[in-house]
Design a protein that fits this description.
Aldehyde Ferredoxin Oxidoreductase Protein, subunit A, domain 2; Aldehyde Ferredoxin Oxidoreductase,  A, domain 1; single chain; globular; Aldehyde Ferredoxin Oxidoreductase Protein, subunit A, domain 3; alpha+beta; 22 helices; six-stranded mixed sheet; 3 domains; 20 strands; 615 residues
C-alpha cells in the first residue's frame, strides 16, 4: 500500500537481534495503520499467556499513513503493549515530532520483544538500527537523556523513560520531545523491565504517495480550515481553556470525584495561565494550531523550565481540582517533575487524591491535607522513587486500596480514570465501563458533542441527546468509538478532525487518505476500519480474561455529586447494566468478545478462533 514502507523493525532485546518484519498487504488494506495494524500484529505475535512485565511481552511503536507527510494532526504515534495496570493490551498516543521522524526511517513501526540484561538504547539512524549500551543514562531523567542522545545523534528525536519507568512503577509513561507522553497504561514500566532506556530515531526517507500532486493540493486546503476563530481560541488557551467551562457545567472532577465544581477553577485555568506563567506556545509537526503550553515560573524554590512544556487540561484537573489544589505554579512544577521522572500526570493525580481522601478518613497514618501543594510535589517524587505512601501505589492503586480497606480508588480494570465526569456525560460513562483498556476518554463519546440537532448524520447520529441519561446511548457510543478508532488507525490528533456540526471534516480526511494510499472509502467503510481495530483490541483483552462481568463503573458514580449542575444525576447501576448489554448486542459481541459471525462480517476471518470462549 502507498504511504507505507510495508515493514516494521523487529527487535529482540534478549538475543540482541534486529531484523525486518514484513506486513502482509491485506493487513494494511483492512487495518490501514496505527492502532489497527499494531493490534493485528500483536494478535499474531504476542503469546496469550504473556504478562506485562515479562520477556514475552511485546512493545509496539506504530505510525499510520499520514505520519511523515506534514498533514495537520499527523504529528503523532501509537504505542501498544500489555499494560501492567490491567494485564490487557492497551494503546496510548503521543504527539510532538517523534512519530514524524519514525515515519521517515524506512519503517512503519517498531516491534520490540524480549528483555535486555543491561540498559540499552535502540538507535534507528538513517535506516540503520543498532542496540547500544546505556549504563551511563540509567538513572537519568528524560530531559538529560534526550539532551545526551541528541548530542550523540544530531537531528534525531528521542522517546525515553525516567526513574519511574526504571523502577517499574505502573504509573510510568514514555516521554518524547521532553514534554509529550505516551501515558496512562504504564508503558514506562514495560520499557523499564526490558531495560530499554530510550529509542532514538533520525530519518530522511519519503514514503511514496498514490497521487502526490493531489495530496499536496488537498493537504494545503485542509490546513486552511484550521485558521478560523475557534481554532485561534483553542490555540491561545490550549485544552486548559475548558477548566472553567467544565466546572460551570458541573463536570470538572474535584475532590477525588466527589464534587463536580471547583471554587478555584479560574485560578488553574488556561486563561489564567495565559495571563501569568505562559512563556510561549509549542506545536506538533505540521500543525498551525500551536495548542501546547510552554510555561516558566518557580514554586517552593524550584524552577519550572520552558523545555518541559506546561500543563494541559488533564494535568490541571488531575493535580489541581481533583486534589483541591488552587496553586497554578505548583501544578506546573508537578507537571515538569512528571515529565522528567516519566510519570503519567493523570495517574499521579488520581493516586494523590486517593491518598488525601484516605488520610482524611484515617485509613493511613500520614496526614495529607486536601489542597496541600508542597505535599503534591513530594508525592509525585515519592511515586517515581517507590517511597512513602505514594510508593505503595506503584504496583497498582487497586492493590493499595484493597490493602487499606478503601472503596474509593477511582479506577476501571486497574486504570485510573481520566478527568471527565460520567455523571454529567453518561454516554462517556458507557465507554468507560466497556473499554477493553480500562477508562479512556480518547476513544469514547463526549455527550457534550451531542447537544445540537443532527450532530453527525454521516455516522448515523441524527438527533440531540441528553447528557444526563443513558437512554438510547449505545448506538451513538458505538458510532463515535468506531470513528475515533479510525482516527487512531490513521494516528491523527483527536483535536483536529471535526466530528460534528457544519465543519464535519471526515470527507476531506478520507480524500486525503485516498490521495496518500490509493485506498478510497465511504463513511461505511471508514467506520468499519475503526470497528475492525476495536474488535482486534477486544480480542486481545478477551484472551487475557476480559468478559462482560468485568465491565462497569466505580461505585462512587452511583452517588450524587455534592455540587454543580450534574449533582442530581447519579449513574444508576441497573440502567448501566442494561446499556452495557445493549452495547454488546449492537457490537455483535457475546460476553467474551466479538463472535465468529461478527469477525466474518468485519472481514476478519483470519482472526476466527483466536479467542477461547470459556464458561
Amino acid at each position: 500500500m502507498h504511504a507505507s514502507f510495508g515493514k516494521y523493525l523487529d527487535v529482540d532485546l534478549t538475543e540482541g537481534h534486529i531484523s525486518d518484519y514484513a506486513i502482509p498487504e491485506d493487513w494494511q488494506s483492512r487495518f490501514v495503520g496505527g492502532k489497527g495494524l499494531a493490534a493485528r500484529l500483536l494478535l499474531e505475535e504476542l503469546s496469550a499467556s504473556a504478562t506485562a512485565l515479562s520477556p514475552e511481552n511485546i512493545l509496539v511503536f506504530a505510525t499510520g499513513p499520514f505520519q511523515g507527510t506534514m498533514v495537520v494532526g499527523g504529528g503523532r504515534h501509537a504505542v501498544l503493549s500489555i499494560s501492567p495496570k490491567t494485564g490487557r493490551v492497551a494503546d496510548s498516543y503521543s504527539g510532538g515530532f517523534f512519530g514524524h521522524e519514525l515515519a521517515r526511517s524506512g519503517y512503519d513501526g517498531l516491534l520490540i520483544r524480549g528483555a535486555s540484561e543491561a540498559p540499552v538504547i535502540l538507535a534507528l539512524i538513517d535506516g540503520k538500527a543498532s542496540l547500544e549500551r546505556a549504563d551511563d543514562l540509567w538513572g537519568a531523567g528524560t530531559g538529560a537523556t534526550e539532551e545526551s542522545l541528541k548530542t550523540r545523534y544530531p537531528g534525531a528525536r528521542v522517546s525515553s523513560i525516567g526513574v519511574a519507568g526504571e523502577n517499574r512503577v505502573v504509573q510510568a509513561c514514555i516521554i518524547n520531545d521532553r514534554a509529550r507522553a505516551a501515558g496512562r497504561p504504564g508503558f514506562g514500566a514495560v520499557m523499564g523491565f526490558k531495560k530499554l532506556k530510550a529509542i532514538v530515531v533520525r530519518g530522511h526517507l519519503e514514503k511514496t504517495l498514490a497521487d502526490s500532486k493531489r495530496f499536496t493540493k488537498e493537504r494545503a486546503a485542509y490546513a486552511k480550515t484550521f485558521t478560523d476563530s475557534g481554532y485561534e481560541h483553542f490555540g491561545r488557551y490550549g485544552t486548559g481553556g475548558g477548566v472553567t467551562v467544565l466546572s460551570e457545567m458541573g463536570i470538572l472532577p474535584t475532590k477525588n470525584f466527589q464534587q463536580g465544581t471547583f471554587e478555584h477553577a479560574d485560578a488553574i485555568s488556561g486563561i489564567r495561565m495565559e495571563e501569568t506563567i505562559l512563556a510561549s506556545r509549542d506545536t506538533c509537526v505540521g500543525c498551525p494550531i500551536r495548542c501546547k503550553r510552554v510555561v516558566e515560573t518557580t514554586f517552593a524554590g524550584e524552577a519550572v523550565l520552558p523545555e518541559f512544556g506546561g500543563p494541559e487540561y488533564e494535568t490541571l484537573a488531575a493535580l489541581g481540582s481533583l486534589c483541591l489544589n488552587k496553586d497554578l505554579d505548583s501544578i506546573a512544577l508537578a507537571n515538569q517533575l512528571c515529565n522528567d521522572l516519566g510519570v503519567d500526570t493523570i495517574s499521579a493525580g488520581v493516586v494523590i487524591s486517593f491518598l488525601m481522601e484516605a488520610s482524611e478518613k484515617g485509613l493511613i497514618e500520614t496526614v495529607i491535607p486536601w489542597g496541600d501543594s508542597p505535599a503534591i510535589i513530594k508525592l509525585v517524587k515519592d511515586l517515581a522513587h517507590r517511597e512513602g505512601w505514594a510508593g505503595k501505589a506503584a504496583d497498582g492503586l487497586d492493590l493499595l486500596a484493597s490493602r487499606i480497606g478503601a472503596d474509593f480508588a477511582m479506577t476501571i480494570k486497574g486504570a485510573e480514570l481520566p478527568m471527565h465526569e460520567p455523571r454529567g456525560k453518561q454516554g462517556m460513562g458507557l465507554s468507560y465501563a466497556t473499554s477493553p483498556r480500562g477508562a479512556t476518554h480518547m476513544e469514547g463519546m463526549h455527550d457534550t458533542m451531542l447537544a445540537s440537532e443532527s450532530p453527525s448524520p454521516e455516522i448515523g447520529v441524527t438527533h440531540a441527546y441528553d447528557r444526563f441519561t443513558l437512554s438510547d446511548k449505545a448506538q451513538p457510543t458505538v458510532a463515535f468509538e468506531n470513528l475515533r478508532s479510525f482516527d487512531n488507525c490513521l494516528v491523527i490528533c483527536c483535536f483536529t478532525p471535526h466530528a460534528t456540526g457544519e465543519g464535519y471534516s471526515y470527507p476531506a480526511i478520507r480524500s486525503l487518505l485516498a490521495a496518500a494510499t490509493g485506498q478510497s472509502m465511504d463513511a461505511k467503510h471508514m467506520l468499519q476500519v475503526g470497528e475492525r481495530a476495536y474488535a482486534a483490541m477486544r480480542l486481545l483483552s478477551g484472551r487475557a480474561g476480559h468478559t462482560i462481568s468485568k465491565d462497569g463503573l466505580p461505585a462512587r458514580f452511583s452517588e450524587s455529586l455534592s455540587t454543580g449542575a450534574s449533582r442530581n444525576h447519579p449513574v444508576d447501576p441497573s440502567t448501566m447494566d442494561k446499556a452495557i448489554a445493549d452495547y454488546y448486542d449492537l457490537r455483535g459481541y457475546d460476553k467474551f468478545g466479538p463472535t465468529d459471525e461478527t469477525l466474518k462480517r468485519l472481514n476478519m476471518d483470519d482472526c476466527v478462533g483466536k479467542l477461547q470462549r470459556g464458561t
